[in-house]
Amino acid sequence: MNEVLQTNVFFVITSIAVVVFTVLLCVALYQVIKILMSARRVMDRIESGTEAIAAEAGKIHAHITNGGFLKNIIKSIFGMRGGASKARRSRKGHVAETEDEV
N or C: which end of the chain has fewer CB within 10 A? Predict the structure, then answer.
């Protein structure tokens, strides 16, 4: 084969390979862009969800600190009435009326 013909065949094959590689690269970049856009939408949803959760937590905190219904439930569950102390039974069966008698 002639050297010029070999050079022309080489350049034709190389140019076809470059075109195929460029097309494949464009397809890959298109897929990456789609994935990034989807990730952005997911992040926006997560961000709006966390904002909603933070707002609800703030409302719950305000409700508890302002003497709301939950505060009364928690007090009754844990027995934090703050009233008079209960009578205690001594070892001999005597019921003490105050804490000094115990």
Answer: N
